[in-house]
User: Fold this.
Amino acid sequence: MADHRQVIIIGSGPAGLTAGLYTARANLKPLLVEGIEAGGQLMLTTMVENWPGYQDGIMGPDLMKEMRAQAERFGAEMVQGDVTALDLSQRPFRVTVSGKEYLADALILATGASAKWLDLGVDKKLSGRGVSTCATCDGFFFRGRPIAVVGGGDTAMEEAIYLSKLATAVTVIHRRDTLRASKVMQDKAASIANISFIWNTEVIDIKDVEKGEVTSLVLKNVKTGETSELAVDGLFIAIGHVPNTKLVAGKLLLDDNGYIVTHGGTRTSVPGVFAAGDVQDHIYRQAVTAAGSGCMAAIDAERFLSGLAHEVPQQVGASHA
Amino acid sequence: MASEKIKTFTDTDFDSSIKDGVVLVDFWAEWCAPCRRLAPTVDQLAEDYNGKLTVAKMNIDENPNTPTRFMIRGIPTLLLFKNGELKETIVGLAAKDDLVRVIDKHVA
Assistant:
């Protein structure tokens, strides 16, 4: 017999854990599938300065630890591993986690987003060989070496600032002539002596795949078409994110960029399936907005389930394992 | 809790430790969040393959030479050796099923 739950939450970033907190407090006994990247993107950050309530900031991994403990305290049950199969064609929904099957009357998807790669092919080949999407993970290997960061948003600035303490020189390569990053991050980066900027420029090739290490980047000025080469030992890519929606492709309505389309709060195209956090948000993408939408999804799911109870009471009776 | 079946390699004993059989080495560091996420999976592999595969960890802060020799530029990185020869390199977080597929190519 499959394990039958009222609510299953997939994802354990700020959206998933907040949904876990609220559904647990609503006595829905949620099961939360943490996923291989448990804790989400904040696990890869350092100081988070824009989480309300911490005037001096809080380390990303510490914040996630607190959120997880808080959700657990109210009875959210955590299960490790990834969802390997998902059947949304009928209720209860079927969720397979590392070979074990669960049934859910309502589902909250909070699978987040992952760092985007350059789409050059070579960048993936040189992953772990000098190309990285995580400065806090891999910056260590570039102590005393020159490196480059590609991107112009807050993440790119954060990576550049972090790496400036390790690398001899950090060159930020951006395809526009202005940064998208917040003013405070821009000013911080601009004030650091070993961070420099190359504007209106794209990375078109990374050398040297044959050697299995990064030796230089081939750059192209998007205004003049001129190409040049920049000698670096490492490249950190911070050009944005792609939503983690492989699991639901073809089962839920997605937009052109692969994000889950929501309406009326966090409702998706399938009744009983809700989405929260970066997997459905390409605009705000903040920890606090993800948490906020996780709360919304929990409330939406609770209302959905009480409607279900009203119409078909036997389903709720059967849902306590 | 780390599996008791997991060994700890150092720069000094590395070569002698990988020369026989199939050996999976997990390069990691305390400060590496993805390494912490991968750790339970590596633990499970050590339990599952019980004896058929040697599973070891190497702390890159304490052992700088071996990671440099294998040009490791990011962690977690898993290296799989068969009788001392490097057969597989797995960079970053990986699901257990994917690791099993790679390991099974080399474990009889």
Summary: Residues 117-237 of chain A form a domain with the FAD/NAD(P)-binding domain fold (CATH 3.50.50.60). Residues 312-321 of chain A have pLDDT under 50 and may be disordered.
